[in-house]
Every structure is written in C-alpha cells, then in structure tokens.
C-alpha cells in the first residue's frame, strides 16, 4: 500500500506550529514544578538553604524521606488517606452506577420526577452548618464515616453514568430477557462488563477528589490519629508545623528551619505517588469513558 503524503497549506502549517509551541509550553509548566519538588526532596538541607538547587550527586541525600518514614504521623496519615479514598471511591462508584443504570431504563416509573429532584440538588444545598449538624446528629463525627459518606454521590456523576448506559444497545438487554435472565442478571452479566470505561472514570474522579481533600477532615475529625495525609501536609506547608518526631525532641529551632524545607518537598512527593502510579492504568479507559458518557 502506497502512503500518500498530506500537503498542508500554509495556514495549516502555522496552526500546527502554534499548537506544538503551546503544547511544549504546557509540558514545561507542568514538568518544571514537579522536577523542582522532586529534586528539592533529595537535596541536603544546608545546600538547599544556601545555594539553592544543585545537580551534583554529592549534595543529594534521602534524609527527608528517612525522617518522614521514622515518624509515625505522615505514614499514619498516608494510610488514613488510602482508607478514606478507597472507601469513598467504592461507595461513590457503587451508588452512582446503580442510580445511573436505573435512570437509564425507559420504563422506570417516576423517572422524570427523580431527575428533577436530583437536578435541584445541583443548584441548592443546605450549606456547611446544616451538613455539619446532620453529620453530628447521626453520630459520624470523629470517625472515618464522616469523611467517606457525606458527598460520596454527586448528581453530575449520576448523569454521566446514566448517559453512558443509555448509549448501550437495547438489543443486549432484549437478548438477555429472551434467554430468561432477570434484570439483576442482565445488569451484572451484560451491562457491567461493558461499563469498564465509565466505572474507571468515576473511580478516578472519586479517588483523586477524596485524596486531595482536607477540609472535611478539618471540621469533622478531632483525633489527630485519624487525620488524612493532606491535612498533615497542610500543617507542614501552610502553618509550618513539623512533628517533633521528625527532628528530634531536643533539637533547636535552627535545626527545624534547616530540615523543614526538605521535609516539605519529601512529603509532597509521597503524597503524589499514588496518583502518579494509578493514572497510567486508568488512562486507556479515561478518554473513552468521558467522551461516551458526555456526548449523547
């Protein structure tokens, strides 16, 4: 087969050039801060404070990571964040998929009323104080459920899932009914295996959103042992509060200032690792799920 060369006009070439320049700038904007933080987490504190960044391997150290792993607060926060994000994702995706599929069924009684009710909640809500009082009254304060349950299901995700399910051929459901399958069997054996793209997209949205959240933990949790990683990281980055165990109880304030920056960078790297590791496995489903779930 002969490959035909595409002759682009001068306008097309100019647009392609502009596109490449913009994409290159975007890559630099994203990459430089990541490399900045990563390199800062491995630099010796004295070099980092006096000379700035250095690419000399003699100035590199893993002291920041050693201090973090030797201290229990960040690792405990890391495990708490995994628990909260995983639990939140399971609850969110489970209820969203069930609600989205139910609303995609044509003969569902009261479907229009339910959708109107859901849409109203997108524009009006009780606010922070009533939500806090509700969480308090049902006994969820200072527990992991206060982080996992409130806000686990959003109307936008339900609409996304509903649109995806409506795009699946009805012939699949009819074939299942002809074979004597119940609605539950059709959903579990036919619909779910075809719904991996939207499930992975919803899971990615939910996990990232909860992993980066700290405000709910700040108002619902009192026990510091329940703090997620992001709340501990907030104390380190914004309030400049480093746990005494990271520097030693008897060390002077000068030592705190010496290692604080390195600990900050190391904590940021650790906090970013799960998302960096997870995204490549979700990427192949991400584009398909978003496009199919939003364009119909």
UniProtKB/TrEMBL annotation:
Q: Single Gene Ontology BP term?
A: transmembrane transport
Q: Which GO CC annotations does the UniProt entry carry?
A: plasma membrane
Q: What's the protein's topology in the membrane?
A: Multi-pass membrane protein
Query: Any idea where this protein resides?
Result: Cell membrane
Superkingdom of this protein's organism? Bacteria
Q: Which PROSITE patterns match?
A: ABC_TM1
Q: Which UniProt keywords apply?
A: Cell membrane, Membrane, Transmembrane, Transmembrane helix, Transport
Q: Which family does it belong to?
A: Belongs to the binding-protein-dependent transport system permease family.
Protein name, entry field: Carbohydrate ABC transporter permease
């Amino acid at each position: 087969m002969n490959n035909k060369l595409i002759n682009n006009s001068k306008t097309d070439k100019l647009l392609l050039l502009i596109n490449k320049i913009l994409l290159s700038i975007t890559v630099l904007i994203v990459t430089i801060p990541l490399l900045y933080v990563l390199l800062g987490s491995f630099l010796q504190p004295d070099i980092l404070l006096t000379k700035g960044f250095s690419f000399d391997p003699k100035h590199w150290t893993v002291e920041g990571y050693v201090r973090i792993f030797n201290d229990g607060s960040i690792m405990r926060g890391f495990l708490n964040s995994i628990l909260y994000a995983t639990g939140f994702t399971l609850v969110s995706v489970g209820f969203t998929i069930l609600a989205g599929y139910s609303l995609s069924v044509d003969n569902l009684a009261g479907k229009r009323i339910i959708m109107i009710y859901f849409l109203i909640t997108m524009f009006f809500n009780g606010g922070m104080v009533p939500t806090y009082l509700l969480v308090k009254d049902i006994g969820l304060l200072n527990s992991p459920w206060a982080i996992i349950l409130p806000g686990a299901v959003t109307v936008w995700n339900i609409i996304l899932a509903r649109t995806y399910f409506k795009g699946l051929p009805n012939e699949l459901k009819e074939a299942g009914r002809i074979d004597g399958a119940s609605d539950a069997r059709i959903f579990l054996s036919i619909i779910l295996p075809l719904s991996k793209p939207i499930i992975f997209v919803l899971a990615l949205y939910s996990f990232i959103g909860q992993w980066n959240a700290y405000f709910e933990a700040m108002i619902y949790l009192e026990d510091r042992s329940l703090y997620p990683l992001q709340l501990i990281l907030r104390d380190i980055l914004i309030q400049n509060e480093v746990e005494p165990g990271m520097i030693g109880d008897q060390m002077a304030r000068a030592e705190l200032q010496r290692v604080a920056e390195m600990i900050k960078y190391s904590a940021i790297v650790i906090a970013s690792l799960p998302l960096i590791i997870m995204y490549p496995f979700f990427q192949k489903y991400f584009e398909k799920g978003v496009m199919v779930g939003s364009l119909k």
